[in-house]
Design goal:
heterodimer, A: seven-stranded mixed β-sheet, five-stranded mixed β-sheet, 11 helices, B: alpha/beta, Rossmann fold, 43% helix
């Protein structure tokens, strides 16, 4: 057991995964410099240039080549440098990676992990702060995983590598070095598709994932100061959703706030609210609220704070559900 | 001969202008395979007109470009083609019934038999070339010697993925053979509207990939350049881009009316350069052909294709639940719930 931040936990998980002779990590600058976020720091030195592969700057090429490797029986881990740079590769993901099992009725498969740092909060340049997870969650044939803490990051990552199908693994940029925790040194898996209850209160249920879990955990504390007990759900996997846990957590308090950083319209919150009303409408005490990013381009550094949901916005939404 | 000069061995009249890379009996066998492919192509076109197949993309005229290339492969090698590459796919082991099933609109067509290293045809144009780079790269990384061969048209070279595939193949010296079937047309757009480059083969140079220009209607020349490209790839010497100059005799697909954008005169000029006719001429002059023999091949293959059609049509179409069953190795919880809903007919 060692204390690690989220970046170190993913690095450690990668190190363990690369011990498998069929696993390679490929992407832009992942090798000699250890990635722009240093997530693969030291791994090329330890595992070699044929295991941690620096590629040309070509996202479609990275995913398309990884697809071929996966079909041949390898387990590639592809890194896309930032979510805003994932769009050139989207055709490969939606037209080939997510479909080859169905197109060949199980004859050919694509067991690969696509790592994508996502989200705002570090004041980076345009295209470096996107939360476009819904386009992957909306694509049939993919699993989409978003860890919020070091323990889950390592366990979910190793589960993603072991999974026989393609997994999009989203890494919250601003939590890389902002959250620390005890992480076992040995290999372990956190199962995909299983949400985690991270706070257990009786008055209102907060539901979120990834980077927003930090704000959600803080909101639980602030609500407690208001005498409000909050249940909090960390989805961990946003496709497939753990519908049972979501619905039960909402039913438990009869009030819910769904939080994400991505734009509101067509976002995951709408889907979660639909699921809750399908399964538990008559157990609800108030309309379900959502606290999300706006339907705007993520503002650049000086105005970014107007966009990302805050503890104040989450607490206000939770208190409003209690007024009903 | 310079690589970018047109490589040709078998003249249209069936005489040799270079050394044949194959003995007469091997050429006769490749001819048999081309006749089989053409028989399939004709039957498939006819069946589409009868409403038994969905849209069909004929490859008539491109038999030598495809089969001359795949003839250079070993079973462990990979073939990654597009919707017009049925001859190449079949020649590398993909059964007629799979091709027919795919054309009737059934995903089971994509399930190649175990041991047949042929991916289902790519329907999006161009994205599959990089897959052959990845397949070959995996072989190289594992210390194996399998080669991946990919087929695509002149139109596909305009896609960004052509650039990325060629660039990766060059940088990582992957064992990949790119076969561009330059058939003159991308639906209605002629080759000169795809690129201002004098040849497609010369594009290889900029990527550090060997480029070769070959008469795509010359079985022997195609085989010759493909064999060299495969040998280079297998020896770890990297990728080759073969531009096979050929012609799409038929329309883009059975939904296309090619009279809207080209004249029959041009098509006729290419019809006389038919890839089967010149091998037939050669075999006839070398006592390797008879009309009876060729008719026998056509009869046999015609029956094989008909049997495949019956097998495909006998297969019961998917029910409302089965469409869910190949999304993942193990169906997910939410998908299982949708599957039940679909089987119930909703609600």
């Amino acid at each position: 057991m060692s204390e690690r931040n989220l970046a170190q936990a993913v690095n450690h998980a990668l190190d363990l995964a690369l011990a498998d002779p069929d696993v390679v990590l490929l992407g832009e600058d992942v090798g000699s410099t250890g990635g722009v976020f240093r997530i693969s720091d030291g791994l090329q030195q330890r595992h070699g240039v044929d295991k941690v592969i620096d590629t040309p700057v070509a996202e479609s090429g990275i995913i398309g080549a990884a697809f071929g490797m996966a079909v041949a029986g390898m387990k590639p881990i592809a890194e896309i440098q930032f979510m805003g740079f994932s769009y050139p590769a989207y055709d490969q993901v939606v037209s080939h990676v997510s479909r080859i099992r169905n197109r060949s009725r199980h004859r050919f498969t694509c067991p690969m992990v696509i790592r994508i740092p996502y989200g705002a909060g570090i004041g980076a340049a345009e295209h470096h702060s996107e939360s476009a997870e819904i386009i992957y969650a909306h694509t049939p044939g993919l699993k989409v995983v978003v860890p919020s803490n070091p323990y889950d990051a390592k366990g979910l990552f190793l589960a993603a590598v072991a999974d026989p199908d393609p997994v999009i693994f989203l890494e919250p940029i601003r939590l890389y070095r902002a959250v620390k925790g005890e992480v076992p040194d040995e290999a372990y898996q956190v199962p995909l598709g299983v949400a985690d209850i991270v706070a257990d209160g009786d008055d209102v249920t907060l539901i979120g994932y990834g980077a927003m879990m930090r704000e959600i955990r803080r909101s639980v504390g602030v609500l407690a100061e208001h005498g409000v007990g909050a249940t909090a759900v960390d989805l961990r996997t946003i496709s497939p959703l753990d519908i049972e846990t979501i619905v039960e957590a909402a039913r438990h308090t009869g009030r819910a706030v769904v939080v994400h950083e991505a734009p509101r319209t067509g976002g995951l919150a709408g889907e979660i609210i639909a699921l809750i009303q399908e399964h538990a409408l008559y157990d609800l005490q108030a309309p379900i609220a959502r606290v999300t990013g706006w339907d705007t381009v993520v503002p650049l550094r000086r105005a970014e704070h107007h966009y990302v949901p805050t503890v104040d916005r989450i607490v206000a939404a939770a208190l409003k559900t209690l007024e009903a | 001969m310079s690589d970018l000069a047109l490589h040709r061995i078998l003249e249209p009249d069936g005489t040799l202008s270079g050394d044949s890379p194959l003995p007469v009996d091997r050429i006769a066998d490749l001819f048999r395979r081309m006749v089989a492919a053409r028989t399939y192509d004709r039957k498939a076109t006819a069946m589409q007109k009868q409403g038994r197949l969905a849209t069909y993309a004929p490859f008539q005229g491109q038999e030598a470009a495809q089969i001359g290339s795949t003839a250079a492969l070993e079973p462990r090698d990979w073939v990654v083609g597009s919707y017009r590459d049925a001859a190449a796919m079949w020649d590398h082991g993909y059964p007629w019934v799979n091709l027919i099933l795919g054309r009737t609109g059934d995903e089971r067509g994509g399930h190649a038999p175990e041991g047949v290293n042929v991916l289902p045809p790519s329907i999006t144009v161009g994205a599959h070339m990089i897959h052959a780079v990845g397949l070959g790269w995996a072989s190289k990384l594992r210390g194996e010697d399998a080669v991946a061969m990919t087929f695509f048209g002149d139109g596909a070279t305009s896609e960004g993925d052509f650039h990325e595939a060629m660039n990766f193949a060059g940088v990582f010296a992957t064992p990949t053979v790119f076969v561009c079937e330059n058939n003159g047309w991308a639906i209605s757009m002629p080759r000169e509207r795809q690129t201002a480059s004098e040849t497609i083969a010369q594009k290889g140079k900029a990527y550090g990939v060997k480029g070769v220009l070959v008469d795509g209607n010359d079985l022997l020349a195609v085989y010759d350049v493909a064999k060299r490209a495969v040998a280079r790839a297998r020896a770890g010497e990297g990728a080759t881009l073969i531009e096979a100059l050929t012609y799409r005799i038929g329309p883009h697909t059975t939904t296309d009316d090619d009279r809207r954008y080209r004249t029959e005169t041009v098509v006729e000029e290419w019809r006389v350069l038919d890839p089967l006719e010149r091998v037939r001429n050669y075999l006839r002059a070398n006592d390797g052909w008879s009309e009876e023999w060729e008719r026998g091949i056509e009869d046999t293959e015609s029956r094989a294709v008909e049997d495949a059609v019956i097998e495909a049509e006998t297969l019961t179409a998917f029910g409302p639940g089965e469409i869910f069953d190949a999304m993942f190795a193990e169906i997910t919880g939410p998908l299982a719930a949708q599957r039940e809903e679909s089987e119930r007919g909703g609600a």
